[in-house]
Write a structure and sequence with these properties.
globular; five-stranded antiparallel sheet; alpha+beta; 27% helix
């Protein structure tokens, strides 16, 4: 019976996970690539304790906004080990991460109309801004997040905008 339960639980886990496909050590931070799709820059590592890192944040006026979160212990440990061993060769993968909107917050701003929390493979959550300008929508990532796969970025942006429009239309009815 224990074996059947174990097999069942393994089917509940996602088939794929985010893979770190590159690491660049900069002066006081690190840049990591994920699945050759996006980079996260400005990751700070604690050299005194060697036991944790800090994800980057955006600053606006005198406020700090944390827009990138690690939501899985496995991914946290993968990032920590990748920073510690930044010179090693990394996994070569062709799998593109899945994503889904997990939260939407409407804003009372003239241009930035919403913040959308997007989860990549249920491991990293990123807050994107949605801007509406002259009836055009722009998905605005945090400054330390950059898509490096243009096709993926285009599909991602269109999906996010379509999802927003469908939610907005549903509220107007």
């Amino acid at each position: 019976m224990k074996f059947i339960f174990f097999v069942f639980l393994n089917f509940l886990k996602p088939a794929y996970t985010l893979d770190i496909t590159g690491c660049i050590k900069e002066t006081q931070s690190y840049t990591l690539s994920f699945n050759y799709v996006f980079n996260i820059t400005g990751i700070k590592y604690n050299f005194k304790e060697y036991s944790y890192f800090n994800m980057p944040y955006d600053e606006f006026h005198d406020r700090k906004f944390e827009n990138i979160y690690v939501s899985s212990r496995k991914t946290y440990m993968d990032i920590l080990n990748s920073i510690r061993e930044c010179d090693r060769s990394f996994k070569n993968t062709s799998k593109k991460p899945d994503y889904k909107i997990i939260d939407i917050k409407k804003l009372n701003s003239k241009s930035r109309i919403a913040n959308l929390v997007v989860s990549f493979d249920d491991e990293i959550n990123v807050i994107f801004g949605l801007i509406k300008k002259n009836n055009f929508y722009i998905v605005y990532p945090p400054k330390n997040f950059k898509f490096i796969d243009d096709e993926y970025k285009k599909k991602f942006n269109l999906d996010i905008i379509d999802k927003w429009k469908s939610l907005s239309e549903g509220e107007e009815k």
